[in-house]
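Throughout our pipeline, every protein is held as a single compact record rather than as scattered files. The record that follows is passed on verbatim for readers who wish to inspect the format.
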Amino acid sequence: MGSKIYVGGLPYSTTEQQLSDLFAVHGAVTSARIITDKFTGQSRGFGFVEMSGDSEAQAAINALNGTQFGGRTLTVNEARPQEPRSGGGGRGMGGGRH
């Protein structure tokens, strides 16, 4: 299992290949993913990179956090586990007439 890294502050034009290349200098990248808006397909300016080893991931975090990429300052840190999402809309159950 590899280490997952959060990368924020990405230029909206960044491709997954560019993101992978940026991290590959510091070790083996197993995946690189840019998060996009589900309606427009536009980048949301952040993504995730998975690296094969913890030491490689830590080296990449130390080297890239706070650096400039495409005119923007990157925020690079260990990704936190995704919080469970509540499903559905804003309608509560219950109510009704008595």
